[in-house]
Amino acid sequence: MLVMMCGWQTTEEIGDPGNTCTWKQTPKNSGPSAFAAFATNPQLAEKIKINFALAPIATAKYVTSVLRFTCYIDPQLFKMANKGTCQAYDWGSPSLNILHHNQLTPPLYHVEDVRVPTAMWSGGRDILVDPIDIKNLEPRVSNLIYHKKIPSYNHLDFMLGLDVYDQIDTEIIMMMNEAQ
């Protein structure tokens, strides 16, 4: 299984004066934090050649999984998920938000500000990243270079699917080769 996003760094940036390039990997489950980081940290975004977003999530307003109701979820996270916004953690009071964010309410992460080329793969049977959330996210990704919807995929298929190599990995490898 490849990863959600790969960064492009020259070996010069990692201490080798050469000009060759390498791909760096980050964990697959970094969806919302990847969009938040790229929207707020231009220096990080400049180092990312392509964001490979597998079952990407920026909001969770339409999650249908019973896990949403059976697992403990911090009340503030649950409130944020129901709002359908991509934002920093809401500390629950204006005074705590001022302490942590220097403003009364948590700042929004503007997915539209992400300039990193993004390739997305989403599943039609994903109960954690609902197709409606994907439909709402897609037009907000300003540099969307590819989006493949796999109707039969649920959330775990992106890691455990028997055909993940054919459905996703070969395309990621091809994009990485083309980007070099």
UniProtKB/TrEMBL annotation:
Name used for this protein in its record: Uncharacterized protein
Organism lineage string: Eukaryota, Metazoa, Chordata, Craniata, Vertebrata
InterPro entries: AB_hydrolase_fold
Gene: LOC106822173
